[in-house]
Model the fold of this input.
Amino acid sequence: KQEVTQIPAALSVPEGENLVLNCSFTDSAIYNLQWFRQDPGKGLTSLLLIQSSQREQTSGRLNASLDKSSGRSTLYIAASQPGDSATYLCAVKRWTGANNLFFGTGTRLTVIP
Amino acid sequence: DTGVSQNPRHKITKRGQNVTFRCDPISEHNRLYWYRQTLGQGPEFLTYFQNEAQLEKSRLLSDRFSAERPKGSFSTLEIQRTEQGDSAMYLCASSLETGGTNTEAFFGQGTRLTVV
Done:
């Protein structure tokens, strides 16, 4: 069974700081990994998708890396802004078996103005 | 709006009543997923469809739950004889699976169910 862990569970930083969110997964046979953002009471917004053959993806101030062999991914947010405050979830899709995404419990980020 | 649409956004129901939720996926997407999310947790998989065929169901999907996607477009999720433990956010997602590698999943805004 695939288990996904996200550390830390909560993070509070001052505006402008760069930060890293961590995601680890137990089964390295993944098809892809996706990072999402979730605002309170809302659905999920896809941020970045990394294929199993890729090592990183970038979108604006966001950079996600993937080290499949060690079962780790990081989401780097540069020059954080108060509007970045949200819960960030990572999810992995396996090569075989279930076609669904396995989610971590998320990191709740607060950026203080 | 070309994203995934879910209705209703909120539903409050009395224990024992039946409820039905609807999901309209992105129009060209052939895969549709249902997830359930409780407070402080990540979403958990319930079931998914490839076009109109329901291909997989999680153990979380008890016999009180049923999902359909009759024409391979929108989907409905029905919960019969609701229990307080069914209170959660129900999320729908869709993706385009063509045998390629980009299977990015897009989620709707969810339906928040409260059973009183």
Remarks:
- The longest strand of chain B covers residues 88-95.
- The CA atoms of residues 49 and 55 of chain B lie 6 Å apart.
- Chain B touches chain A at residues 4, 6, 31, 33, 35, 40-45, 48, 55-56, 58, 91, 93, 101-110, 112 (CB under 8 Å).
